[in-house]
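Please fill in the sequence for the structure shown.

STRUCTURE ENCODING:
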């Protein structure tokens, strides 16, 4: 071992411990009935905070979050699968202008157009419904997945499609039978990235959903912040752990496809 590298390793260990400290506090506070901002080992362990976190309302928030994230991610994936093909393979007037115009949706802060969106859904009677949140997040979630899917399609030689056309396949059949099997890992990347973005969304559900029972967990978790600045740190930490479980499970199941998808995209 080179002794000159010891300071570097010590520095990296300190950075790791400093970064991991919030996670340590999170787990310690979740089993401490008298949890505070201080990182400390509780005098005695308790699961009362988790009992509160797994109450009927919290489970309802989790269900809402899963419905919103899964449906939105699936809709974005289906739309991008078809729309990206047009931008990748077809030539039409204003293609680049439309593509980067769509990307502009994600550059503009949500707070700029959240009021017109609320007024629109109020006029059509969709306020306080998960449908309004799903539609909004689907539209806002399209730009970057669309660009990613276009990149995956661009990396596939068009000769595969031409061979399928000679065999009598239509463009739609070619997409599903030729292109998508080759960029399967890319689909996992697009779906999971959209899922994570939707799962962490706070402002749109907060504005469009006015009933606590309709809220996703990203909004419901703030009930741990009581009145006059009083915070229930035990409940907050247990809800935070609960909030982190579904994305971690999703990542464990599709991580190998994500790695293949990102590597394939970079190579392409």
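FILLED IN BY: designer on duty
SEQUENCE:
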């Amino acid at each position: 071992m080179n002794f000159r590298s010891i300071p570097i390793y010590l520095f990296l260990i300190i950075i790791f411990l400093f970064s991991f400290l919030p996670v340590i506090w999170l787990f310690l506070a979740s089993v401490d009935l008298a949890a505070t901002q201080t990182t400390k080992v509780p005098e005695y362990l308790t699961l009362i905070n988790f009992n509160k976190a797994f109450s009927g309302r919290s489970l309802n928030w989790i269900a809402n979050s899963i419905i919103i994230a899964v449906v939105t991610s699936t809709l974005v994936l289906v739309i991008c699968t078809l729309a990206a093909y047009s931008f990748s393979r077809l030539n039409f007037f204003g293609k680049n202008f439309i593509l980067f115009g769509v990307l502009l949706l994600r550059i503009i802060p949500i707070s700029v157009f959240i009021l017109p969106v609320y007024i629109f859904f109020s006029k059509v009677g969709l306020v306080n419904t998960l449908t309004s949140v799903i539609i909004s997040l689907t539209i806002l979630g399209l730009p970057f997945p669309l660009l990613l899917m276009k990149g995956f399609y661009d990396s596939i030689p068009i000769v595969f499609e031409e061979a399928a056309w000679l065999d009598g396949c239509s463009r739609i059949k070619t997409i599903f039978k030729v292109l998508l099997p080759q960029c399967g890992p890319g689909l996992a990347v697009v779906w999971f990235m959209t899922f994570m973005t939707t799962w962490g969304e706070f402002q749109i559900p907060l504005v469009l959903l006015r009933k606590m029972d309709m809220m996703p967990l990203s909004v419901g978790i703030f009930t741990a912040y009581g009145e006059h600045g009083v915070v229930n740190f035990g409940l907050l930490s247990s809800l935070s752990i609960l909030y982190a479980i579904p994305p971690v499970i999703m990542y464990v199941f599709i991580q190998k496809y994500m790695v293949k998808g990102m590597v394939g995209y970079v190579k392409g």
